[in-house]
Design goal:
This protein is α/β, with parallel strands linked by helices. The protein has 19 helices and 30 strands. The radius of gyration is 24 Å and the shape is globular. The structure holds ligand 6R9.
Length: 637
Amino acid sequence: MAYPYQIKSIEEYQQNYQQSVIDPEGFWANVADHFYWRRKWDKVLEWNFKEPDIKWFVGGKLNITENCLDRHLGTLGNTPAIIWEPNDPEERHRVITYRDLYNKVCQFANVLKNNGVKKGDRICIYMGMIPELAIAVLACARIGAIHSVVFGGFSAQSIADRIQDAQCSLVITCDGAFRGNKDIPLKSVIDDALIGCPSVKKVIVCTRTRTPVSMIKGRDLWWEDEIKQVETMGNPPCPAEEMDAEDMLFILYTSGSTGKPKGVVHTCGGYMVYANYTFVNTFNYQPGEVYFCTADIGWITGHSYIIYGPLSAGATTLMFEGVPTYPDAGRLWSITDKFRVNILYTAPTAIRSLMGYGLGPVNHKELSSLKKLGSVGEPINEEAWHWFKDHIGKGRCPIVDTWWQTETGGIMITPIAGVTKEKPGYATLPLPGVQPILVDENGKEITGNGVNGNLCIKFPWPGMLRTTYGDHERCRTTYFATYENLYFTGDGCQRDEDGYYRITGRVDDVLNVSGHRIGTAEVENAINMHAGVVESAVVGYPHDIKGQGIYAYVITERQTHDPELTKKDILQTVSRIIGPIAKPDKIQFVSGLPKTRSGKIMRRILRKIAEGELDNLGDTTTLLDPVVVEEIKRGRL
Ligand code: 6R9
């Protein structure tokens, strides 16, 4: 496939960028022209950030799977679409060509139809990283069902919350998932989750681990049996459902600074164009290149850059079931060697954790196929950047430090591989179509270079979220009400003398732990569920590998006799309510929390203490009870 909109030089970037600002509609129409539409749009864009109301390619009709599959069959039918590497290196890998993938997606789409799934129905997908996960996602899109993928590390309670919020009618899962030396009992977690989810009528279970599971009559079906049924029907094709450009494609839950995670909604047309455009440009993807993104499909990176971006571009996308440290810390490099990977897209937390094992696992690995490297999910520290550059890229591969969010649908600020001059720690420049702006607390624009502020975006881009599922007002207040007429990212940002952007981290109460977004309020609520806990406050602190660690200050009803046991209980509670990823790294029992006279917890102070900046607590005179600060300082872990 050729990509006429692929940027090849910095001059071309400048030119495209200018054009995208002067005439955004013309710019995006030119890109969108290279996709397969059942019906062309009447109007490129209608928008306001007040309500907000954002529509791209108004009146356009399409199906994203026709762009990811059907249109490639003629030229790329025998080209690998997905290469799958299992958790256990001894097990055989799988190669799925575009034709295979097309057939499998149609087959499973027919399974969904046989089970009564219709356009607009919400389907929860809770699976490990096996090809059937990608097949399930695409099968939903094929028939216009809205997928809501839930990461395999979330607890039954978290799944139940998500299923209830979206009123899902069907769940697709596996008996279990292999991850490193663990075997996660997915179906049994689903069984627990479904106790409170009457909307779910059916569960389709794909075999992976052969862990014993209980199947409920009339509700639970085996994936393999259902496929056989379609085979006995003679494997009929599955025509793609015609979707409006603004019909929902998927919901993906993500954490914010308050309340429960919200369902970020992406729609068919704009998301497709944006995921493709950003994939092709950021990585400067060339036909035939093997591309490996180590993310899990349970996160937005997996949606946009394992499935939709690469497949819509006819790329070969490598999907890995396991973890970078299993069976040893050289696994990513072995995979790179085995499949001659050309592009590797991973997270700073993975790099930092692998750095800890030294160069042993890297030496003697053949990494000469690598041409481009990428980083995503959190700020990348310079040390990790250089290690990645020198020891993995051998000094010859550009690194793209890509900044973006679940809400943005695709990459926003990033170098373009081989085009943009990189700078460690900097996401550098906005892609064409992206108009960042820095503002102060009052929403006043901070102009010029060498400045710091809150990062906002002032003009719509096709991949942006349209709403939060079932609660549009929440979308407005979270993203569009802080600063008038701007989308607020929640991130702090520096623009240096060269006009390069560097993301400095969240300015709200959202933590980034190993690249996973976790709301402090969410963790506090989970801790508070534990009997005997009166109140808690959670903050982040710098963590060598995870980027941020979770520090919890907890008040218990009475002095605990066995603090270690209570800590263990609290960790278990958090695991049960949210999932293991949200477990605090440190729990400090305190007798009180620093509060203002109006009762607000002064997190700023707690953050400083957790960071170890004890002499630099700032103004504490507005505190209700300044003495408590001294006590907390003394008890710091
Ligand atoms: C894609 C993804 C979004 C938050 C975002 C920011 C942080 C992501 C980053 C980065 C610095 C980068 N973040 N990429 N910070 N440099 N290159 O990660 O989405 O899970 O929604 O997280 O992650 O704080 O606001 P999501």
